[in-house]
């Protein structure tokens, strides 16, 4: 039952994140004005939400329900998935039910392209 519940919550988090991003997109509060939204699933991993504008700039979104702490190394793995998908990560948003590690927080503070969103923000 535990595995089923975790999968259920992961899908719900993805849905909630999608709704959140849709609202921000309607209010022009994202770094791009999305005209296409989808998901990428590959053998190396999943990009939960892919948003693209008319110029094909990408906002890649990763949703993590399972981890207590989403680490910088987890973020690096997300970039590897994007590379495998042949999608340039012009902007990246990471949504997490848990916390973010200090290294990743520091990276986001110095980056104009990385946004970290914890579940309390949603």
Biggest β-sheet: strands ordered side by side in the sheet: 1-2-3-5-7
What proportion of the residues form beta strands (DSSP E)?
Answer: 25-35%
Spatial separation of the terminal alpha carbons: 26 Å
Shape: globular
- Count of DSSP strands: 7
* Helix count, DSSP H or I runs of 4 or more residues: 3
| Fraction of residues in H or I helices | 25-40%
On the 0-100 scale, what is the average pLDDT? Answer: 91
From N to C, what is the helix and strand string? HEEEEHEEHE
How is the main sheet built?
Answer: 5 strands, mixed
Spans of at least 5 consecutive residues whose pLDDT stays below 50 are none
Q: Cα-atom Rg, whole angstroms?
A: 14 Å
Structural class, judged by helices and strands? alpha/beta
Could you please describe the fold and organization of this structure?
This protein is an alpha/beta fold and 122 residues long. It has 3 helices and 7 strands; from the N terminus they run H-E-E-E-E-H-E-E-H-E. It has helices at 2-26, 72-84, 102-109; strands spanning 36-42, 45-52, 58-64, 69-70, 91-96, 99-100, 114-118. The strands form 2 sheets. Strands 1-2-3-5-7 form a 5-stranded mixed beta sheet. A hairpin with a 5-residue loop joins strand 2 and strand 3 (58-64). The two termini are 26 Å apart. The mean pLDDT is 91.
Which structural traits does this protein have?
single chain; 122 residues; five-stranded mixed β-sheet; two-stranded parallel ribbon; 30% strand; globular
């Amino acid at each position: 039952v535990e595995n089923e519940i975790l999968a259920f919550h992961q899908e719900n988090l993805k849905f909630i994140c999608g709704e959140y991003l849709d609202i921000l997109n309607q209010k022009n509060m994202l770094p791009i004005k999305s005209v296409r939204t989808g998901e990428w699933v590959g053998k190396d991993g999943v990009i939960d939400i892919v948003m693209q504008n008319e110029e094909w700039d990408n906002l890649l979104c990763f949703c993590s329900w399972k981890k207590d702490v989403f680490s910088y190394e987890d973020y690096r793995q997300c970039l590897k998935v994007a590379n495998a998908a042949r999608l340039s990560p012009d902007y990246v948003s990471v949504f997490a039910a848990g916390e973010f590690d200090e290294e990743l927080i520091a990276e986001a503070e110095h980056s104009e392209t990385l946004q970290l969103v914890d579940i309390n923000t949603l």
